[in-house]
Amino acid sequence: MAILDYVLDSSTKPTNFGEGEAYVEDKLPAYTPMPWSLKEIRDAIPEQMFVRDTRRGLLYLARDILMAAVAWSLASKIDPLFAQQDTLFQQRLSETLSGHFDQASLEWTLWAVMGASKWALWGLYWWFQGLIFTGIWVIGHECGHSAFSDHKMVNNVVGFITHTFLWTPYFSWKISHHRHHSNHASMERDEVYVPKTREDLGMPDESSHGHKIDYEEYFGDTPLYTMYMLIRQQLVAFPAYLLFNVSGQKTYPKWTNHFDPNSILFTAEQRNAVIMSNIGIAAMVYGVSQASAIWGFGQVVKFYGIPWLAVTHWFIMITYLHHTDPDLPHYRGKEWNFQRGAAATVDRNFLGWQGRFFLHDVAHFHVIHHFFPKMPFYHGPEATQHLKAFIGDHYAYSDKPVFKALWDNYNKCQFVENEGELHLDLFLDHSVSVSISCWTLSDSTTCYLF
Fold this sequence. Notes:
Layout: E1 6-8, E2 30-33, H1 38-43, H2 54-75, H3 78-97, H4 101-144, H5 152-165, H6 170-182, H7 206-209, H8 215-219, H9 223-244, H10 271-295, H11 297-323, E3 329-331, H12 338-343, E4 347-348, H13 352-358, H14 367-371, H15 380-391, E5 397-398, H16 402-412, E6 422-424, E7 436-437, E8 447-449
Parallel strand pairs: 4-5
Antiparallel strand pairs: 1-2, 2-8, 3-6, 7-8
């Protein structure tokens, strides 16, 4: 994978250090900054890639809603089907128990297979309905960027409905998400996935510590505990971000959240939009409570709750892997600019055809989205080819299996240094430690990763 905004000098080849092998600075690759302005990059993309087609967007939304309705309808037949079979089984079992033991044992086996089949079908529903719901969330995301339609009203109505249905305060999130795009990869101003520093973790600097730090002591968790923490991230990280600013900008006050109209996240002019988002979420609370009273809480969980949890999982997994990788830089001060921040993300082959079809290419073509957020998702594949041709090795792509990438990055991307104007997430390995030494960058200076 290419380093996003810093490209290997053509005269220097990367050095792969073996396990336990010492790092030698003379063998390290040098990096040079991306030279183009945002206008030069935009001029390399055909103008038709920026055209928004409201009708086309609405057709994608209608397709998603239809798929969700079909999946919901099919799932509604699962329990009645197996309930009927269970009644027949109980009748046959009562008749068999008075006869041969071997026949009764076979009947119990068939009952177990029937039960496993029922939950397998529910699992199939949760998988695909979760993907379909996530695709609907992506449509709302398009609306938040005004990429869905040329008409502001269409964007806001569709975005508000789709995101509210999936427990996202549309206008509140839209405001902070715009700030994220405007400041991506800036240590001081980015809104989310801001990496921790050495100081945040209470770790001394090696130069002042006097001896080599045992990173295993700080990060050597057992695989079981790491898995627990990773699952917790996947299921609650997005609500935690909205409610408590978890993984957000650390300079914000302690109780920063997306529901307080007076939060530092919003201006006075945006207060009414935040209130409108809150009204939408309150309506969802009422709607879900009423549905639970009518059909039962268990039914609401099976048909809606678990697919919604899948949405939070896929959303966090996609965005985490877009913005967290040992090769992705973060900037401080004047070394940050919009195009460097936009390039500090990576496209991934996320779930193959399922990711492309159900998730509207949101993970496959994310780099172009950070350069041009108002570009509709359906132009992403072609526009990415033009972007790659222009910026070359500054474009990053990974075909690593995404669940392996999630595990690796969660374990290896831990913190950045306290000072310096360019940082990559510190890449930790159980056998060696890796760090970054950076200097103020100019046309003649370089930065070394070691």
